Structure formats: C-alpha cells, structure tokens
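Trying the structure run again after the queue cleared.
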Amino acid sequence: MNLKKNIIRILAVLIVLIIVRNIIPFSKPGIKVTYNGSKVETAQWDYIWVPKNSGGNSGICDVIPKLADNIKATTVKGGDKVKFRFNTILKQPRKTVTLHMVNNEEIPVNKRESWKGNNYFSAPKEKGEYVYIINGDWDRTHDANYLVKICVE
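Done. Tokens:
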C-alpha cells in the first residue's frame, strides 16, 4: 500500500514539474553569464513582458554604446566559451536567442551567432573589445535583452 502511495506521489511531482517547466515566467527573468566559472557583468537593455489579452509592461534602456560604457569588460581568450542561462525555474526561451555583435560606436556589425539550445557563445578569435546582446525570446509578447562586454586577449 505504501508503495502505491509513493508511486502516486512521485508521478504527481513529475507532472507538476513538467507543467511548471512549460509555463512562461510571470515576470522578466534576469540572466546569469559566466566565463570559466566566474560571473560576467551584464546590463539590462530592453524587454517586452506583456501578458496575452491584457495590459503588461515593457522597458527600453539607454542606447547601446552609452549603456555598454557602464559595463566592466570581462577578459577572455579568443575562441573560449561564455556561458549564459536565464534565471528561471520555469520555461527557458523557446525561440532562437540571437547574439548580436555590436561595436561601441555603431549599432550592429554584420557578425551574428544564433543559439538553438546551447547555453553559450564563443568569443571571437580576433583581439579587441566586443559587446553582445543576449536576446531571450519566449513568444511574441515575452522578450528580454541583456548586454555583455568581453575583451579578447
């Protein structure tokens, strides 16, 4: 009898976990970015977090070059991986997360990487300072963008 109760409890927990993992977070999640286990500084750029069929919220931060000036660059080796994950136990972004390489004077440079299930991007091999936009896109009304600055040695 106890075995049946335990099996039912385990199944109930699994069902709840499956349901929770498929729910879009209730508010815009933060992001954790790391390089070799150390935290990388980020800045929130813009976001849209609007519940379907109701009002919601969205935010637009400063222009990229000005905002990037306030972020400390993390020194990395060319080609190394920079890892990231959105801070939520709920659903991670379902759509492609695009990393736009941006230079500090102009907006997008032609280089772009797409993230499809991987939780990292590779630093360029060329030395220099690079600013990335990490865009998490859950659906049409749930989108969050963060800036990261790296300096390739």
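The mean pLDDT is 79. Worth checking whether this holds up in the mutant runs.
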